[in-house]
Amino acid sequence: MNDLSTSSQITYQAVPIRPGTIRRIRGLSDQALAWLFITPTIVLLLAINIFPLVWTIYLSFTNYRANRANAPTIWLGADWYQSILTDPDIWAAMQVTAHFVVWTVLIETVLGFGLAFLIDKKFRGHGLWTTIILLPMMLSPAVVGNFWTFLYQPQIGLFNYVVAFFTGREASSFQMLGDVTLSPWAIVIVDAWMWTPYVMLICLAGLRSIPDYIYEAAEVDRASNWRQFWSITLPMALPFIMLAVLFRGIENFKMFDMVNLLTGGGPGSTTEVASITLKRAAFESWRTGYSSAFAIILFVTVFGLANIYVKALNRVKSR
Amino acid sequence: MNLDVNTSTSNVSLTSRMLRRGPLEAIATTIIAAGVVMLMQPFFLTLYSWSFAVTLFGTVMFTIVSKVRE
């Protein structure tokens, strides 16, 4: 054993690897090596992110139609933008989106913060409850959309029976997904059910980041629980709440899958959010140039919101 | 003479105070938020028509001022 270790030491000492040897052999500087490693990522980024974006911007100024790719393309300038930004139907779609975004974010924030506040109290079995509460968030939107479609069935759906139990109405007397008034709320309920746990997680992180000594100092000053909540808990958790609001706002502004699965934009156009309108223009009417302009408008809005989100994130990080 | 010097000094300090990342980012953020609100409000079609221009201006401004010194 000793012989073996000695021989390996001798071998190691006999061929020392001096720093820079490999580099000199290959003839690559540190910077060249860095570029070598980073180039595939940059190429991939250019191919799947930057090129489609630039191409979409170009198409948004033309009359291009994807189903008539060989037809001559005419430069239209900002005509599509002007058309979209003066179209009352698109404006209505934006209002449907606004209804969806405002209510889901409001409900998710209030419920999420409330749940986080309760979970933060660390009662018996709080770990188990946290896991149970987080379950909806872990499901795929496709799965959630499909099983809520069954839950909302007027004849066999559990949701209608629960409402009937509490209100005394006939279970089959209302359709959550087929009624003009109820269908926007049906989507709000599903989104809130699915994403409240996510807001809860972020708020919980905010609540756990508040040091205990602040509450101890407040106790010494004989501050009431109510006063502690308004003067310590809420202000210190506020950046995290803002983060959750912005993130959910951006995500719901782009919402497509859930709405498409639950109502497909109907009945009529009562749940036709902006992304559904965009899909219809792009893949049903095949107005590629028009839908590209619409996509760019949505992109700029989301990009602007993302800037605010990043700023809020930096503020949270600096704490 | 003294008055001129004081005015100049206060101008410089005001400019240097304004041309910092923090206040400029706050202005850009407000413009973006205003643009998004204009896009989604249900009251005036004219505000909706101008929303994209406002959001785009705010976003470009934010991108530029985020490179300004602290």
Characterization of the model:
The complex is a heterodimer of chains A (319) and B (70). By secondary structure, chain A is mainly α. Chain A has one domain: MetI-like (MetI-like fold, Orthogonal Bundle), CATH 1.10.3720.10. Helix content of chain A is 72%, strand content 0%. Chain A is built from 14 helices and no strands. In chain A, α11 packs antiparallel against α14 (288-317). The longest helix of chain A has 32 residues, at 88-119. The mean pLDDT of chain B is 82. Chain B has three helices and no strands. With 70 residues, chain B is an all-alpha fold. Chain B has one domain. The A-B interface holds A 81, 85-86, 88, 91, 94-95, 97-98, 101, 297, 300-301, 303-305, 307-308, 311 and B 25, 28-29, 32-33, 35-36, 39-42, 45, 48-49, 51-52, 55-56, 58-59, 62-63, 66.
Percentage of residues in helical conformation of chain A: over 70%
Note the overall shape of chain A: globular
Question: What structural class is derived from the secondary structure elements of chain A?
Answer: mainly alpha
The helix tally of chain A amounts to 14
Tell me the β content of chain B. Answer: under 5%
Distance between the termini of chain A: 56 Å
Number of domains of chain B: 1
Low-confidence stretches of chain B: none
Query: What's the CATH class label of chain A?
Result: Mainly Alpha
Major beta sheet of chain A, specifics?
Answer: none
Low-confidence stretches of chain A: 1-10
- Which pair has the most extensive contact? A-B, 19 and 23 residues
Element string of chain A (H = helix, E = strand): HHHHHHHHHHHHHH
Question: From the structure provided, what is the oligomeric state, counting identical versus distinct chains?
Answer: heterodimer
Topology pattern of chain B, helix = H, strand = E: HHH
- On the 0 to 100 scale, the average pLDDT of chain B is 82
Amino-to-carboxy terminus distance of chain B: 33 Å
Radius of gyration of chain A: 28 Å
The CATH architecture term of chain A is Orthogonal Bundle
Portion of residues in helices of chain B? over 70%
CATH superfamily of chain A: MetI-like
